[in-house]
Amino acid sequence: GAVVSQHPSRVICKSGTSVKIECRSLDFQATTMFWYRQFPKKSLMLMATSNEGSKATYEQGVEKDKFLINHASLTLSTLTVTSAHPEDSSFYICSAAGGARLDEQYFGPGTRLTVT
Amino acid sequence: GESVGLHLPTLSVQEGDNSIINCAYSNSASDYFIWYKQESGKGPQFIIDIRSNMDKRQGQRVTVLLNKTVKHLSLQIAATQPGDSAVYFCAEGGGADGLTFGKGTHLIIQP
């Protein structure tokens, strides 16, 4: 199956700093990428949907200036958590879709962000 | 709505027994359903999917059943093994609308 990678797998940063998470589709062109956030013992919550070369579409309640998403190529999307705070600590998961069906997604392994 | 701090439902089964994990979905227009397995600290792993024109689909040791009348989806795992311990999520999709995830069930395999 299609492979999606994320980097880093875990990151610790200090409060007030920014951190960037990369999501790459390794063997297919991802026209659409998704960013999810997952709290402990909870389900995945969609944060935003990004299409290559376009601005991301954010879900209600997700601050676009806080969570900057860039989808500059068909194989790379980045999520930057700006001015991170401890409440931003979470597990961030990306997924990628290569076709018209946006429900056919391939998931990355996730990134554990801890803000101290 | 879901209470803050509410843990995932837990299903505990003996190793070697069969397990059934249930999921209620919400959108009658959804036509694609997927089960994912998520181990601690990892991303969701695809297990099996089913389209709305089917009511049953089998894989290796897993079977998914779809009841569109009551909007219910189940995952059956036969002869459970320790490696089956994980959180299992159902997800529904409708093509252009992306995925909506269920709340998840924590499956524990007892030795």
Describe the structure.
The complex is a heterodimer of chains A (116) and B (111). Chain A is mostly beta strands and 116 residues long. Chain A has strands at 4-7, 10-13, 19-25, 32-38, 44-51, 57-58, 67-73, 76-81, 90-97, 106-107, 111-115. Chain A is 0% helix and 52% strand. Chain A starts with a strand and ends with a strand. Chain B is globular, with a radius of gyration of 14 Å. Mean pLDDT of chain B is 92; it is low at 1-5. Chain B has strands at 10-14, 19-24, 32-38, 45-51, 56-58, 62-67, 72-77, 86-93, 99-101, 105-110. In chain B, the strands form two sheets. In chain B, strands 1, 3, 4, 8, 9 and 10 form a six-stranded mixed sheet that branches. In chain B, strands 2-7-6-5 form a four-stranded antiparallel sheet, with no helix packed on it. With 111 residues, chain B is an all-beta fold. Classes of the chains: A mainly beta (116), B mainly beta (111).
Order of helices and strands of chain B: EEEEEEEEEE
Write down the overall mean pLDDT of chain A.
Answer: 94
The major pleated sheet of chain B works out as:
6 strands, mixed
Oligomer state equals heterodimer
CA-based shape of chain B: globular
The chain pair with the largest interface is: A-B, 23 and 26 residues
Low-confidence stretches of chain A: none
Helix content of chain B: under 10%
Query: What summary fits the major beta sheet of chain A?
Result: 7 strands, mixed
Please give a handful of descriptors for the protein shown.
heterodimer, A: 116 residues, mainly beta, 7-stranded mixed β-sheet, globular, B: 111 residues, 0% helix, disordered N terminus
Task: Outline the fold blueprint.
The complex is a heterodimer of chains A (116) and B (111).
Chain A: E1 4-7, E2 10-13, E3 19-25, E4 32-38, E5 44-51, E6 57-58, E7 67-73, E8 76-81, E9 90-97, E10 106-107, E11 111-115
Parallel strand pairs in A: 2-11
Antiparallel strand pairs in A: 1-3, 3-8, 4-5, 4-9, 5-6, 7-8, 9-10, 9-11
Chain B: E1 10-14, E2 19-24, E3 32-38, E4 45-51, E5 56-58, E6 62-67, E7 72-77, E8 86-93, E9 99-101, E10 105-110
Parallel strand pairs in B: 1-10
Antiparallel strand pairs in B: 2-7, 3-4, 3-8, 5-6, 6-7, 8-9, 8-10
